Amino acid sequence: MKRVLVVDDSLSVARQLEKIIAESGDFTCVGHAKNGAEAIKMNHTENPEIICMDMNMPGMDGLTALRTLSVMDKEVKVVMVTSLGGVGDKFTEALKLGAKNVISKPFEADNVLRILREL
Fold first, then answer.
1. 3-state secondary structure of 38
2. Cα-Cα-Cα-Cα dihedral of 80, 45, 26, 105, to 10°?
3. Of 109, 111, 82, nearest in space to 94 by CA
4. Is the pLDDT of residue 68 over 90?
5. Full-prediction pTM beyond 0.85?
6. What would the pLDDT profile of 17-40 be if each residue is shown by its tens digit?
7. How far apart are CA 85 and CA 76, in angstroms?
8. Using the 8-state DSSP alphabet, how is residue 98 labeled?
9. Average pLDDT for residues 47-68, to the nearest whole number?
10. In whole angstroms, what is the distance from residue 57 CA to residue 109 CA?
11. What local confidence, expressed as pLDDT, does residue 84 receive?
12. Backbone angles phi, psi at 50, to 5 degrees
């Protein structure tokens, strides 16, 4: 099973995503970080293969964390999570910085799992 780290400042959103991941049978959730700085630390301690990271969080946001992670760990695959519905510049910037895809909120389990399985 692939190891997934969930990064979101909203506990309810994180729990919803963790449930989809846990029930898939293909993935296991190795932890939950509340911002980009925690995600960077947990990437070292939990060694996930995939990080599902919210774009907008207090402290260090997802794009800033993605910049750091893409330099520090060439193997990890980051999927950005957004309620912006892939709007414009941030979506494009995330892909340029190395994000593999973008998942929109509210989550559709089939869509989330399809994106994760493609990685």
1. helix
2. -20
3. 82
4. yes
5. yes
6. 999 999 999 999 999 999 999 999
7. 23
8. T
9. 96
10. 22
11. 63
12. -135, 140
State how far the Cα of 82 lies from the Cα of 109, in Å rounded to an integer: 15
Q: Where are any strands of DSSP class E within 8-118? A: 27-33, 50-54, 77-82, 101-104
Using CB atoms within 10 Å of the CB of residue 95, give its burial: 0 to 12 exposed, 13 to 18 middle, 19+ buried.
middle
Handedness of CA 89, 57, 25, 73 (dihedral sign): positive
pLDDT digits (tens, 9 = 90+) for 77-101: 999 998 865 456 788 889 999 999 9
Rg (CA), the chain: 12
Identify whether 106 is preceded by a cis peptide bond (ω within 30 of 0): yes
- Count the Cβ atoms, other than its own, within 10 Å of residue 16: 18
Phi, psi values for residue 4, rounded to 5°: -125, 135
Q: What is the mean pLDDT of residues 53-62?
A: 94
* End-to-end Cα spacing for the chain: 13
Output the pLDDT for position 90.
82
Instruction: Look up the CATH architecture of domain 2-117.
Output: 3-Layer(aba) Sandwich (3.40)
Cα gap 52→68, rounded to integer Å: 15
